[in-house]
Amino acid sequence: MKAKMIILSVLMSSSAFAAVQGKVSMKIDSSSAQIIVKNISVKEGDRVALYEETCQGPKIELCRKTKVGTGVVSRVISQDASEIKVDGNVKLKEGLLIEKE
Description:
Layout: H1 2-15, E1 22-29, E2 32-37, E3 47-56, E4 62-76, E5 81-86, E6 97-100
Antiparallel strand pairs: 1-2, 1-6, 2-5, 3-4, 3-6, 4-5
């Protein structure tokens, strides 16, 4: 029974990341960053959500993501890269996860 619960927990936590579409690759300044997106197209004005991933556990690592803010695509650099401006007091840092809203 314990093994079934562990397997179920792992499967549920991994499905939570199915919508992740990119990451912050470079912080430009306190309110803008460059993002790398995967398998989606974004255009100027698209809204994005920013998430921080935290993982813990000695044997089986369980990860959670927490929404830390939102932003808007301000410039499309290439098919895979764009620039965003964040709303409010989001603490930008490299590695934040991106989801298109």
